[in-house]
Amino acid sequence: PADPSGQAERRVEQAQDLQPLTMRGCWILLALLACGLPQLSSQAEADVQATSTISLAPVAPLINGVDDIDAALGNCGAEIQQFCSDLTAGEGRLADCISDQISESESADSADGTGTVTDACREDVYQFKIQRNSNINLNVPLAKACKVDAEKYCNILWFFGYKAGQVIGCLRDFREQLAPACQRQVFKIQKDAAEDYRADPMLYEACKADVEILCKDVKLGGGRVQGCLRDNRMQLTRTCEEQLSRQELENADDVRLSVRLFSTCIKDKRKFCADVEPGSSRVKDCLEANRNEPAFSPDCKEEIDKMIEGRVRNFRLDE
User: Fold this and answer.
1) pTM of the entire structure?
2) Is 229 exposed, middle or buried (0-12, 13-18, 19+ CB in 10 A)?
């Protein structure tokens, strides 16, 4: 029969426009449905695409929509106004700014002490880093900088099934072979995990029960939980001790990743090793060489002695 309105023809054209959904498209639609979004606006589509840079990891909506802490409703409003007022939210800029202040307040010579950043704001930043480190696609700068390296070194991971933090863990394993831009981003991830064990998904999963038993009253952040675990190493479960040793080995060559040692020894570093660049254990070696000097601080010497004891226990830390 005749179709004067042309509706049938238009329906055929619309059907021809439909293409089979790719796996990537399914991930995107599932992510949107999980968030309760009724439709995909052009801006939302751009955001979702930005969080699916690495095909080896699931698509994940940007944290707070911008890959940053919540500047409007979170607990860091005063700190953002005081320290980060010239920055715009996105790609972790506000979180990094507050993290710098937390690190400064943790250092032994901080005049302000740990009160520079409130505990509530600290926890906002820590929780952002914890969530971000669970999936490389949640960390936009990391995903962009490491896209090629992830595909090159980590493309076998799909065979074993995806696990939280898996791609980031793979990049840490190959950090010496990574492109410079990727290395810088991976270092930031290592620093996050060195400061708060919860930001290392594998360490957290292996040690959360040990922490509950042995380090329940230890304040989070500043590498304190890892320090507590090391102090109680003989009582750790096997899986926790393995993951703690793994993180220690990964962080051994840069003093900035030995958070407790670095914060304790910052004055001694400036006094005895001011011209020594971090990396390849150079600062640690310099501090060790000067630890018996009269002006060397007792607290730093104690940390250096613990470092030496650790190397005796695990020779790989001295490689």
Assistant:
1) 0.71
2) buried
